[in-house]
Write a structure and sequence with these properties.
The complex is a heterodimer. Chain A is of the alpha+beta class. Chain A is built from nine helices and eight strands. In chain A, helix 2 crosses helix 3. The chains are: A alpha+beta, B mainly alpha.
Chain lengths: ~260, ~200
Protein backbone atom coordinates (compact mmCIF):
# COMPACT_ATOMS: atom_id res chain seq x y z
CA UNK A 1 0.00 0.00 0.00
CA UNK A 2 1.37 3.41 -0.92
CA UNK A 3 0.34 6.96 0.08
CA UNK A 4 -2.08 7.22 -2.81
CA UNK A 5 -3.90 4.04 -1.70
CA UNK A 6 -4.06 5.38 1.83
CA UNK A 7 -5.61 8.63 0.66
CA UNK A 8 -8.31 6.78 -1.25
CA UNK A 9 -9.37 4.31 1.37
CA UNK A 10 -8.97 6.56 4.42
CA UNK A 11 -12.76 7.09 4.71
CA UNK A 12 -13.21 3.33 5.02
CA UNK A 13 -10.43 3.11 7.60
CA UNK A 14 -11.98 5.91 9.65
CA UNK A 15 -15.39 4.24 9.61
CA UNK A 16 -13.86 0.83 10.38
CA UNK A 17 -15.12 -0.74 7.18
CA UNK A 18 -11.86 -2.22 5.96
CA UNK A 19 -11.47 -5.97 6.24
CA UNK A 20 -8.81 -7.27 8.60
CA UNK A 21 -6.16 -7.76 5.92
CA UNK A 22 -6.47 -4.29 4.45
CA UNK A 23 -6.75 -2.66 7.86
CA UNK A 24 -3.50 -4.38 8.81
CA UNK A 25 -1.82 -3.12 5.61
CA UNK A 26 -3.14 0.36 6.33
CA UNK A 27 -1.70 0.26 9.88
CA UNK A 28 1.64 -1.00 8.58
CA UNK A 29 1.86 1.93 6.17
CA UNK A 30 1.06 4.45 8.87
CA UNK A 31 3.92 3.09 11.01
CA UNK A 32 6.42 3.83 8.26
CA UNK A 33 4.94 7.07 6.92
CA UNK A 34 4.85 10.06 9.28
CA UNK A 35 3.16 12.21 6.64
CA UNK A 36 0.14 9.91 6.33
CA UNK A 37 0.03 9.41 10.07
CA UNK A 38 0.01 13.16 10.61
CA UNK A 39 -2.66 13.70 7.96
CA UNK A 40 -4.92 11.03 9.41
CA UNK A 41 -4.52 12.56 12.86
CA UNK A 42 -5.46 15.97 11.49
CA UNK A 43 -8.59 14.51 9.88
CA UNK A 44 -9.57 12.78 13.09
CA UNK A 45 -9.21 16.04 15.05
CA UNK A 46 -11.21 17.90 12.44
CA UNK A 47 -13.98 15.28 12.61
CA UNK A 48 -14.06 15.62 16.37
CA UNK A 49 -14.33 19.43 16.25
CA UNK A 50 -17.02 19.27 13.60
CA UNK A 51 -19.03 16.62 15.42
CA UNK A 52 -18.87 18.44 18.74
CA UNK A 53 -19.89 21.74 17.18
CA UNK A 54 -22.95 20.33 15.44
CA UNK A 55 -24.01 18.18 18.36
CA UNK A 56 -23.72 21.19 20.66
CA UNK A 57 -26.75 22.72 18.99
CA UNK A 58 -29.85 22.06 21.01
CA UNK A 59 -32.52 20.35 18.95
CA UNK A 60 -35.99 20.58 20.41
CA UNK A 61 -38.10 17.77 18.99
CA UNK A 62 -41.09 18.10 21.30
CA UNK A 63 -43.27 19.95 18.78
CA UNK A 64 -42.38 17.84 15.78
CA UNK A 65 -42.82 14.62 17.78
CA UNK A 66 -46.27 15.74 18.87
CA UNK A 67 -47.25 16.50 15.31
CA UNK A 68 -45.91 13.16 14.08
CA UNK A 69 -47.90 11.28 16.72
CA UNK A 70 -51.04 13.15 15.80
CA UNK A 71 -50.52 12.34 12.16
CA UNK A 72 -49.94 8.68 12.83
CA UNK A 73 -52.95 8.45 15.09
CA UNK A 74 -55.12 10.06 12.42
CA UNK A 75 -53.68 7.83 9.70
CA UNK A 76 -54.04 4.69 11.83
CA UNK A 77 -57.75 5.16 12.19
CA UNK A 78 -58.43 5.56 8.51
CA UNK A 79 -60.41 2.65 7.03
CA UNK A 80 -57.48 1.82 4.73
CA UNK A 81 -55.46 0.73 7.74
CA UNK A 82 -57.90 -2.08 8.39
CA UNK A 83 -57.82 -3.33 4.81
CA UNK A 84 -54.23 -4.51 5.12
CA UNK A 85 -55.07 -6.77 8.05
CA UNK A 86 -55.75 -10.48 7.57
CA UNK A 87 -59.30 -11.17 6.49
CA UNK A 88 -61.34 -14.22 7.29
CA UNK A 89 -64.76 -13.88 5.85
CA UNK A 90 -67.03 -11.18 4.57
CA UNK A 91 -68.55 -10.28 7.92
CA UNK A 92 -65.13 -9.79 9.50
CA UNK A 93 -64.28 -7.31 6.77
CA UNK A 94 -67.54 -5.55 7.50
CA UNK A 95 -66.65 -5.58 11.18
CA UNK A 96 -63.31 -4.01 10.35
CA UNK A 97 -65.13 -1.28 8.47
CA UNK A 98 -67.44 -0.69 11.40
CA UNK A 99 -64.49 -0.62 13.78
CA UNK A 100 -62.59 1.77 11.58
CA UNK A 101 -65.65 4.00 11.30
CA UNK A 102 -66.03 4.05 15.09
CA UNK A 103 -62.37 4.80 15.52
CA UNK A 104 -62.38 7.43 12.78
CA UNK A 105 -65.15 9.27 14.55
CA UNK A 106 -63.31 8.93 17.85
CA UNK A 107 -60.10 10.18 16.26
CA UNK A 108 -61.99 13.09 14.76
CA UNK A 109 -63.03 14.18 18.22
CA UNK A 110 -59.55 13.67 19.58
CA UNK A 111 -57.59 15.29 16.81
CA UNK A 112 -59.63 18.31 15.88
CA UNK A 113 -59.49 20.51 18.95
CA UNK A 114 -62.10 23.16 19.46
CA UNK A 115 -59.97 26.09 18.40
CA UNK A 116 -59.10 24.44 15.09
CA UNK A 117 -62.69 23.51 14.45
CA UNK A 118 -63.55 27.15 15.07
CA UNK A 119 -61.02 28.31 12.49
CA UNK A 120 -62.57 26.03 9.91
CA UNK A 121 -66.08 26.94 10.94
CA UNK A 122 -65.29 30.64 10.78
CA UNK A 123 -63.73 30.26 7.35
CA UNK A 124 -66.77 28.34 6.11
CA UNK A 125 -69.15 30.98 7.48
CA UNK A 126 -67.08 33.80 6.04
CA UNK A 127 -67.11 32.25 2.59
CA UNK A 128 -70.83 31.45 2.83
CA UNK A 129 -71.89 34.95 3.90
CA UNK A 130 -69.46 37.10 1.99
CA UNK A 131 -68.89 35.16 -1.21
CA UNK A 132 -71.88 32.88 -1.76
CA UNK A 133 -74.58 35.14 -0.32
CA UNK A 134 -72.66 38.28 -1.29
CA UNK A 135 -73.45 40.30 1.78
CA UNK A 136 -72.51 43.93 1.38
CA UNK A 137 -68.92 44.14 2.60
CA UNK A 138 -66.06 46.45 1.60
CA UNK A 139 -63.83 44.57 -0.85
CA UNK A 140 -60.63 45.78 -2.47
CA UNK A 141 -60.28 44.98 -6.15
CA UNK A 142 -57.21 46.94 -7.22
CA UNK A 143 -54.22 44.52 -7.35
CA UNK A 144 -51.80 47.19 -6.09
CA UNK A 145 -54.06 47.93 -3.12
CA UNK A 146 -54.38 44.17 -2.43
CA UNK A 147 -50.59 43.85 -2.49
CA UNK A 148 -50.36 46.73 -0.02
CA UNK A 149 -52.88 44.95 2.21
CA UNK A 150 -50.67 41.87 2.15
CA UNK A 151 -47.67 43.96 3.20
CA UNK A 152 -49.76 45.34 6.05
CA UNK A 153 -50.51 41.78 7.20
CA UNK A 154 -46.83 40.83 7.13
CA UNK A 155 -47.17 38.51 4.14
CA UNK A 156 -45.71 40.66 1.36
CA UNK A 157 -45.37 38.94 -1.99
CA UNK A 158 -47.88 36.24 -1.15
CA UNK A 159 -50.75 37.24 -3.43
CA UNK A 160 -50.58 35.68 -6.89
CA UNK A 161 -52.83 37.33 -9.44
CA UNK A 162 -53.38 33.93 -11.06
CA UNK A 163 -53.23 30.35 -9.85
CA UNK A 164 -52.35 27.61 -12.30
CA UNK A 165 -53.51 29.94 -15.12
CA UNK A 166 -57.03 28.76 -14.23
CA UNK A 167 -58.04 31.01 -11.36
CA UNK A 168 -57.68 34.77 -11.28
CA UNK A 169 -57.81 37.08 -8.30
CA UNK A 170 -61.11 38.92 -8.00
CA UNK A 171 -61.05 40.80 -4.71
CA UNK A 172 -59.70 40.89 -1.16
CA UNK A 173 -60.36 42.03 2.37
CA UNK A 174 -59.11 41.35 5.87
CA UNK A 175 -61.24 39.17 8.12
CA UNK A 176 -60.96 37.65 11.56
CA UNK A 177 -61.13 33.86 11.99
CA UNK A 178 -60.94 32.38 15.47
CA UNK A 179 -59.35 35.57 16.77
CA UNK A 180 -56.67 35.85 14.09
CA UNK A 181 -56.55 38.24 11.17
CA UNK A 182 -56.44 36.64 7.74
CA UNK A 183 -56.15 38.13 4.30
CA UNK A 184 -59.28 36.85 2.57
CA UNK A 185 -58.75 36.53 -1.19
CA UNK A 186 -61.43 35.48 -3.64
CA UNK A 187 -60.40 33.72 -6.85
CA UNK A 188 -62.63 32.75 -9.75
CA UNK A 189 -62.28 30.39 -12.68
CA UNK A 190 -64.99 32.29 -14.56
CA UNK A 191 -67.93 30.40 -13.14
CA UNK A 192 -67.01 29.36 -9.59
CA UNK A 193 -65.51 31.29 -6.70
CA UNK A 194 -63.05 30.09 -4.07
CA UNK A 195 -61.91 31.77 -0.87
CA UNK A 196 -58.24 31.70 0.04
CA UNK A 197 -57.34 32.76 3.58
CA UNK A 198 -53.73 33.67 4.33
CA UNK A 199 -51.87 34.66 7.43
CA UNK A 200 -48.30 34.64 8.64
CA UNK A 201 -47.40 31.23 10.05
CA UNK A 202 -46.77 31.13 13.78
CA UNK A 203 -46.41 28.45 16.44
CA UNK A 204 -50.00 27.25 16.15
CA UNK A 205 -50.32 24.35 13.76
CA UNK A 206 -53.26 23.11 11.80
CA UNK A 207 -54.81 19.76 12.53
CA UNK A 208 -57.49 17.79 10.76
CA UNK A 209 -57.49 14.74 8.54
CA UNK A 210 -54.59 14.46 6.12
CA UNK A 211 -55.95 14.29 2.56
CA UNK A 212 -52.52 13.93 0.96
CA UNK A 213 -49.55 15.95 -0.17
CA UNK A 214 -49.43 19.05 -2.32
CA UNK A 215 -45.94 20.09 -3.34
CA UNK A 216 -44.51 18.30 -0.36
CA UNK A 217 -46.95 19.84 2.08
CA UNK A 218 -49.60 18.11 4.07
CA UNK A 219 -53.05 18.91 2.81
CA UNK A 220 -55.66 18.76 5.57
CA UNK A 221 -59.34 18.52 4.89
CA UNK A 222 -62.44 19.38 6.87
CA UNK A 223 -66.01 20.33 6.19
CA UNK A 224 -68.45 22.67 7.89
CA UNK A 225 -71.80 24.14 6.91
CA UNK A 226 -71.77 22.39 3.52
CA UNK A 227 -68.43 23.99 2.75
CA UNK A 228 -65.26 22.11 1.83
CA UNK A 229 -62.18 23.33 3.65
CA UNK A 230 -58.58 22.49 2.88
CA UNK A 231 -55.57 23.78 4.72
CA UNK A 232 -51.80 23.62 4.49
CA UNK A 233 -48.75 25.43 5.73
CA UNK A 234 -45.78 26.80 3.88
CA UNK A 235 -42.61 27.93 5.61
CA UNK A 236 -44.15 31.43 5.86
CA UNK A 237 -47.90 31.05 5.68
CA UNK A 238 -50.91 29.34 7.14
CA UNK A 239 -53.28 28.82 4.24
CA UNK A 240 -56.96 27.78 4.14
CA UNK A 241 -59.28 27.24 1.24
CA UNK A 242 -63.05 27.41 1.60
CA UNK A 243 -65.63 26.75 -1.07
CA UNK A 244 -69.18 25.51 -1.52
CA UNK A 245 -68.02 23.69 -4.66
CA UNK A 246 -67.55 19.88 -4.76
CA UNK A 247 -64.59 18.32 -2.91
CA UNK A 248 -62.69 17.60 -6.13
CA UNK A 249 -62.90 21.22 -7.22
CA UNK A 250 -61.81 22.37 -3.78
CA UNK A 251 -58.80 20.08 -3.88
CA UNK A 252 -57.83 21.20 -7.38
CA UNK A 253 -57.92 24.81 -6.27
CA UNK A 254 -55.95 24.05 -3.08
CA UNK A 255 -53.22 22.30 -5.07
CA UNK A 256 -53.02 25.23 -7.47
CA UNK A 257 -52.68 27.57 -4.49
CA UNK A 258 -50.01 25.35 -2.92
CA UNK A 259 -47.99 25.40 -6.15
CA UNK A 260 -48.15 29.19 -6.27
CA UNK A 261 -47.39 29.98 -2.62
CA UNK B 1 -53.66 -13.17 16.73
CA UNK B 2 -53.69 -14.92 13.37
CA UNK B 3 -56.37 -15.34 10.76
CA UNK B 4 -57.75 -18.49 12.35
CA UNK B 5 -58.36 -16.64 15.55
CA UNK B 6 -60.92 -14.45 13.87
CA UNK B 7 -63.07 -17.20 12.41
CA UNK B 8 -66.41 -17.39 14.16
CA UNK B 9 -65.74 -14.61 16.61
CA UNK B 10 -68.38 -12.06 17.40
CA UNK B 11 -68.56 -8.54 16.00
CA UNK B 12 -67.46 -6.77 19.20
CA UNK B 13 -64.45 -9.12 19.41
CA UNK B 14 -63.47 -8.24 15.85
CA UNK B 15 -63.79 -4.56 16.63
CA UNK B 16 -61.56 -5.10 19.62
CA UNK B 17 -59.07 -7.08 17.49
CA UNK B 18 -58.77 -4.30 14.90
CA UNK B 19 -58.25 -1.66 17.57
CA UNK B 20 -55.66 -3.80 19.36
CA UNK B 21 -53.77 -4.50 16.14
CA UNK B 22 -53.64 -0.83 15.19
CA UNK B 23 -52.43 0.08 18.67
CA UNK B 24 -49.75 -2.62 18.63
CA UNK B 25 -48.45 -1.35 15.31
CA UNK B 26 -48.33 2.17 16.68
CA UNK B 27 -46.50 0.98 19.78
CA UNK B 28 -43.91 -0.80 17.67
CA UNK B 29 -43.42 2.27 15.47
CA UNK B 30 -43.09 4.44 18.56
CA UNK B 31 -40.48 2.06 19.95
CA UNK B 32 -38.30 1.60 16.86
CA UNK B 33 -38.76 4.79 14.85
CA UNK B 34 -39.51 7.73 17.12
CA UNK B 35 -36.18 7.66 19.04
CA UNK B 36 -34.48 8.85 15.83
CA UNK B 37 -36.45 12.07 15.38
CA UNK B 38 -33.76 14.21 17.00
CA UNK B 39 -31.08 13.01 14.56
CA UNK B 40 -33.42 13.50 11.64
CA UNK B 41 -34.37 17.00 12.71
CA UNK B 42 -30.73 17.94 13.24
CA UNK B 43 -29.89 16.92 9.68
CA UNK B 44 -33.11 18.37 8.27
CA UNK B 45 -32.23 21.74 9.75
CA UNK B 46 -29.05 21.67 7.70
CA UNK B 47 -30.93 20.69 4.56
CA UNK B 48 -34.00 22.89 4.65
CA UNK B 49 -34.22 26.61 4.22
CA UNK B 50 -35.67 27.37 7.67
CA UNK B 51 -36.68 25.63 10.92
CA UNK B 52 -40.35 25.31 9.93
CA UNK B 53 -39.43 23.65 6.64
CA UNK B 54 -37.09 21.31 8.53
CA UNK B 55 -39.92 20.23 10.85
CA UNK B 56 -42.20 19.69 7.87
CA UNK B 57 -39.54 17.53 6.25
CA UNK B 58 -39.21 15.36 9.36
CA UNK B 59 -42.98 15.08 9.64
CA UNK B 60 -43.23 14.01 6.03
CA UNK B 61 -40.44 11.47 6.59
CA UNK B 62 -42.32 9.87 9.48
CA UNK B 63 -45.59 9.97 7.64
CA UNK B 64 -44.04 8.11 4.70
CA UNK B 65 -42.29 5.71 7.07
CA UNK B 66 -45.54 4.94 8.85
CA UNK B 67 -47.31 4.23 5.58
CA UNK B 68 -44.50 1.86 4.54
CA UNK B 69 -43.93 0.40 7.97
CA UNK B 70 -45.24 -2.98 6.88
CA UNK B 71 -42.40 -3.16 4.36
CA UNK B 72 -39.71 -2.49 6.92
CA UNK B 73 -37.85 -5.67 7.86
CA UNK B 74 -37.41 -6.09 11.58
CA UNK B 75 -33.78 -6.36 12.52
CA UNK B 76 -32.53 -4.15 9.70
CA UNK B 77 -31.31 -0.60 10.19
CA UNK B 78 -34.34 1.54 11.03
CA UNK B 79 -32.23 4.69 11.39
CA UNK B 80 -30.67 4.33 7.93
CA UNK B 81 -34.11 3.56 6.50
CA UNK B 82 -35.54 6.76 7.98
CA UNK B 83 -32.64 8.83 6.66
CA UNK B 84 -33.11 7.36 3.23
CA UNK B 85 -36.76 8.40 3.31
CA UNK B 86 -35.73 11.86 4.54
CA UNK B 87 -33.35 12.44 1.64
CA UNK B 88 -35.81 10.95 -0.86
CA UNK B 89 -38.53 13.29 0.39
CA UNK B 90 -36.17 16.23 0.30
CA UNK B 91 -34.95 15.60 -3.23
CA UNK B 92 -38.42 14.65 -4.46
CA UNK B 93 -39.52 18.16 -3.64
CA UNK B 94 -36.85 19.46 -6.00
CA UNK B 95 -35.08 21.19 -3.19
CA UNK B 96 -31.38 21.84 -2.97
CA UNK B 97 -29.56 21.67 0.29
CA UNK B 98 -29.69 25.09 1.85
CA UNK B 99 -26.54 27.07 1.35
CA UNK B 100 -27.27 29.20 4.38
CA UNK B 101 -25.65 28.01 7.59
CA UNK B 102 -27.63 28.13 10.82
CA UNK B 103 -26.86 31.53 12.24
CA UNK B 104 -25.16 31.60 15.58
CA UNK B 105 -25.25 34.90 17.39
CA UNK B 106 -22.26 35.76 19.51
CA UNK B 107 -24.01 38.64 21.21
CA UNK B 108 -27.16 37.00 22.43
CA UNK B 109 -26.83 33.25 22.26
CA UNK B 110 -30.14 31.51 21.91
CA UNK B 111 -31.21 28.01 22.85
CA UNK B 112 -30.17 26.63 19.51
CA UNK B 113 -26.55 27.59 20.03
CA UNK B 114 -26.12 26.56 23.64
CA UNK B 115 -23.48 23.92 24.18
CA UNK B 116 -24.69 20.82 25.97
CA UNK B 117 -21.98 20.92 28.59
CA UNK B 118 -19.15 23.07 29.87
CA UNK B 119 -16.62 20.91 28.11
CA UNK B 120 -18.31 21.50 24.74
CA UNK B 121 -17.06 23.90 22.12
CA UNK B 122 -17.32 27.64 22.67
CA UNK B 123 -19.92 29.70 20.84
CA UNK B 124 -17.18 31.20 18.70
CA UNK B 125 -16.01 27.71 17.78
CA UNK B 126 -19.55 26.60 16.90
CA UNK B 127 -20.06 29.72 14.81
CA UNK B 128 -16.78 29.29 12.97
CA UNK B 129 -17.42 25.66 12.12
CA UNK B 130 -21.05 26.30 11.25
CA UNK B 131 -20.09 29.06 8.86
CA UNK B 132 -17.32 27.02 7.27
CA UNK B 133 -19.70 24.08 6.85
CA UNK B 134 -22.26 26.36 5.21
CA UNK B 135 -19.77 27.29 2.52
CA UNK B 136 -19.30 23.70 1.35
CA UNK B 137 -21.11 22.24 -1.63
CA UNK B 138 -24.42 20.50 -0.92
CA UNK B 139 -22.92 17.09 -1.84
CA UNK B 140 -20.11 17.51 0.65
CA UNK B 141 -22.43 18.71 3.39
CA UNK B 142 -24.71 15.71 3.00
CA UNK B 143 -21.96 13.09 3.35
CA UNK B 144 -20.17 14.92 6.17
CA UNK B 145 -23.37 15.19 8.17
CA UNK B 146 -24.16 11.53 7.73
CA UNK B 147 -20.64 10.22 8.32
CA UNK B 148 -19.13 12.50 10.92
CA UNK B 149 -22.13 13.74 12.87
CA UNK B 150 -24.55 10.84 12.56
CA UNK B 151 -21.92 8.11 12.44
CA UNK B 152 -23.06 6.19 9.38
CA UNK B 153 -20.57 4.02 7.52
CA UNK B 154 -19.72 4.70 3.88
CA UNK B 155 -21.76 1.68 2.87
CA UNK B 156 -24.79 2.92 4.79
CA UNK B 157 -24.44 6.41 3.29
CA UNK B 158 -24.29 4.87 -0.17
CA UNK B 159 -27.64 3.24 0.59
CA UNK B 160 -29.17 6.38 2.04
CA UNK B 161 -28.14 8.66 -0.82
CA UNK B 162 -28.39 5.97 -3.53
CA UNK B 163 -24.80 6.55 -4.63
CA UNK B 164 -21.90 4.21 -5.45
CA UNK B 165 -19.73 3.73 -2.37
CA UNK B 166 -16.72 5.08 -4.26
CA UNK B 167 -18.55 8.36 -4.81
CA UNK B 168 -19.34 8.55 -1.10
CA UNK B 169 -15.67 8.02 -0.25
CA UNK B 170 -14.54 10.61 -2.73
CA UNK B 171 -17.03 13.18 -1.47
CA UNK B 172 -16.04 12.49 2.10
CA UNK B 173 -12.36 13.03 1.36
CA UNK B 174 -13.04 16.21 -0.59
CA UNK B 175 -15.51 17.47 1.97
CA UNK B 176 -13.09 16.93 4.84
CA UNK B 177 -10.35 18.65 2.90
CA UNK B 178 -12.59 21.61 2.00
CA UNK B 179 -13.76 22.02 5.59
CA UNK B 180 -10.22 21.90 6.84
CA UNK B 181 -9.05 24.50 4.34
CA UNK B 182 -11.73 26.86 5.58
CA UNK B 183 -10.98 26.27 9.24
CA UNK B 184 -7.20 26.12 9.02
CA UNK B 185 -6.17 27.82 5.78
CA UNK B 186 -2.50 27.69 6.71
CA UNK B 187 -2.47 23.97 7.46
CA UNK B 188 -0.17 21.91 5.23
CA UNK B 189 -2.03 19.81 2.66
CA UNK B 190 -0.27 16.51 2.60
CA UNK B 191 -3.25 14.66 1.17
CA UNK B 192 -4.90 16.30 -1.78
CA UNK B 193 -8.43 15.05 -2.17
CA UNK B 194 -8.57 12.98 -5.30
CA UNK B 195 -11.39 12.02 -7.55
CA UNK B 196 -10.73 8.36 -6.71
CA UNK B 197 -14.37 7.37 -7.06
CA UNK B 198 -13.71 4.33 -9.19
CA UNK B 199 -10.88 2.34 -7.80
CA UNK B 200 -11.65 2.10 -4.13
CA UNK B 201 -15.32 1.55 -4.82
CA UNK B 202 -14.60 -1.40 -7.07
CA UNK B 203 -12.19 -2.94 -4.60
CA UNK B 204 -14.62 -3.28 -1.77
CA UNK B 205 -17.78 -4.28 -3.58
Amino acid sequence: MNCSDITEIAPLYISAELDARRASEFDAHLKTCPACMSELGAQARLDERFREALLAEEVDVSRVNRRIRELIAAESFRPAAAVSQPRSGRWVTAAAGVAAAFLLVAAGYLLVPGHVARVYADAARDHQLEVVQRQARPWIVDPAAIAALAVQQGIAGSVPLELDASYHLERAKVCRLDGHLYLHLVYSDGTREFSLFLRQRDGQHLTGAIRGFANGRFLRAASADNEHLLAFETSRLTVMVATDQPAGAAEHFAKAASAAL
Amino acid sequence: MGQAGLTGVCLPCSVHWIATTVTARQDEFEHVAMPHSRSLLRVARRLASDPAAAEDLVQETYFRAWRSFDQFQAGTNMRAWLFRILFNAFYAQGRRISAAPILVSLDAPGREAEPQSRSGPSLAEVAEISNAFGELSSEHRAVLLLAVVEGFTCREIAGILTLPIGTVMSRLSRGRQALRERLSPAAPKVWEARAGAGRAGKEIR
